[in-house]
Write a structure and sequence with these properties.
Number of strands of chain A: 14
Radius of gyration of chain A: 21 Å
Strand order of the largest sheet of chain A: 2-10-9-8-5-3-4
CATH class of the largest domain in chain A: Alpha Beta
Helix content of chain A: 40-55%
Largest sheet of chain A: 7 strands, mixed
Order of helices and strands of chain A: EHHEHEHEHEEEHEHEEHHHHEEHHEEH
Number of helices of chain A: 14
Oligomer: homodimer
Largest interface: A-B, 72 and 72 residues
Distance between the termini of chain A: 37 Å
Number of domains of chain A: 2
Structural class of chain A: alpha/beta
CATH topology of the largest domain in chain A: Aspartate Aminotransferase, domain 2
CATH superfamily of the largest domain in chain A: Type I PLP-dependent aspartate aminotransferase-like (Major domain)
Amino acid sequence: MIDLNTLPERLLLGPGPSNAHPRVLDALSRPLLGHLDPLFIELLDEVKQGLRNVFGTTNAFTLPISATGSAGMEACMVNLLEPGDNILVGVNGVFGGRMCEVASRAGAKVHRVEAAFGEPLDVDAMVTAIRATRPQLTAFVHAETSTGVLQRVPEIAAAAREVGSLVVLDCVTSVAGVAVELDEWGIDAAYSGTQKCLSCPPSLSPVSFSDRALERVRERATPVQSWYLDVSLLAGYYEGAKRAYHHTAPISSIYGLSEGLQLVEEEGLAAREARHREAAAALIDGVAEFGFTPLVAAEHRLPMLTSLQLPEAILNSGEAELRGALLNKHNIEVGAGLGSLAGQIWRVGLMGENARITSVDRLVGALREELS
Amino acid sequence: MIDLNTLPERLLLGPGPSNAHPRVLDALSRPLLGHLDPLFIELLDEVKQGLRNVFGTTNAFTLPISATGSAGMEACMVNLLEPGDNILVGVNGVFGGRMCEVASRAGAKVHRVEAAFGEPLDVDAMVTAIRATRPQLTAFVHAETSTGVLQRVPEIAAAAREVGSLVVLDCVTSVAGVAVELDEWGIDAAYSGTQKCLSCPPSLSPVSFSDRALERVRERATPVQSWYLDVSLLAGYYEGAKRAYHHTAPISSIYGLSEGLQLVEEEGLAAREARHREAAAALIDGVAEFGFTPLVAAEHRLPMLTSLQLPEAILNSGEAELRGALLNKHNIEVGAGLGSLAGQIWRVGLMGENARITSVDRLVGALREELS
């Protein structure tokens, strides 16, 4: 059996998980409360408020789904879509593609607006398609973790609302790393993950639903296909005076999230975003000497996740071998390309606590050792 | 903000979560590995083997779903049912009822065989109904956490297999507390939770699918309605030589489960069951002086969860107030009744690490103080 005390301390510079903050790790090991304990309910209410802060919303229904980010995506789709509904999805990476798949399994007719991996969605193309298809739901990704593209949101959201469409935004990688402003942008449902810029372990998916979205759920003709993700049932536990048992909330994970949100509050969102931007700039500078070039144009680049095109020499000598050496000799993890970018790029995450020049220095030092 | 370091140490004697073992809490705070790190994959393979041990199975597809126990229930239903399928569900408590609801949302026609809350399912009634309805799926609960009833399994499972039905068994509360023998009993899919007799926090749902169950999934005419819970997609990450990204596995929770399974192995399943039985017997003896009587007949009683009928005096003075006093003055949590038993019973869990005479002594001492 693997002895957990002998596990190496990796520097996790892939697309997530990032390293959890030591205070978060400590929080995970606090003794359990029951999920109906008034003290735990009080903590949960604080967590919900902290999540509203990082989502930029006053939405009452803002809470951590008891499963990882992709379950948050599924929660948005299965609550807001009924069989036969039209959904328009912007696809410029793996996670836009995943939205199509999840929506299709909810019985929706899926319309796609595509952009090349590494490019943002074309706002005009999205607006035109929204006006043409008049979908019940419009969905796209704020921060595409498969490519490192940051999407401009407000114009697409406004066009969707003009035709009565609800808007779903994937904020898995953006939350607590760049500004997320659900209310200002007019987003009806959004989901995130804890293992990126919140510096918590993977296990929860923060979600937020607007009142307009909840109204749509109330007006459904068919039951939500997932009992576990049904927001009306979740509301019975997470909201109101009487907290009714639905499922058993993951106590320890929520302790960790509580501490992670506290750390965000202590630092402030603006300072945190600046730190992410500074680290990303240092990364691009630092790896230039080895011939890595950013995949994404500067104005669309995510600060917390940088896609680096591999230089010819590394493509020829084997990028997987070099990633293996970084992991095994230097305890540094970087991410491989996904989908059509597999073998072509690395994805380097500088997320949450890892968004520091010291992380960049360690990676650059290791690369220098391996490549010289 | 609540300071996590000031949280009281509760003795959790409700229906779950139970207290996590100190070694499990320590495991949760180990530094994260990436979810595709070869070391983490090795750990995951060990966890799968440990789960096979507690499920009594050699099923290759045995793994922790990245969500709590009810998601394990949903995983069984949505993978094994197609719209229009017939399912026969044994209902003698809240969790049998939940199975009906989840199956119905998967589009199945639900047939129920009911027994009174506090009674086991009548085996003859189940067998007769199975032969009459010849369902695609038969589902029932091994250990009903809402009532404290242990169900006899083999005859029902055999009757189901005779008519070509797959069999799903809810083992949320039984795993690692009483013998679970999926292979010997002929069970095709089972699910559990980590927060009961495994002494881990809530956050994962161990599941196991037989080859026969996986064959049924392969033969489906329709896609599994949940992308997150689709066992074919999960297999791509949890099995085989190439581990493909599906969702991001909850690293820390799996560390905890690994340690929990290690503790089970060190103790041995037979010794663990004996400890649970001894603690339950001591509980029933210990609370008799206050007039509590067990709801369930001795031969059907769960050792890890005892439903106690409340004496007249407590019914009159307010059972919720007394539970509140136990919690706030003595840091002991006991569970309320669910469904039709709300206000009528308490559910006292002696699960995993808490299944000790010392837990009983603490509860009896506190009751004596409150009731004398």
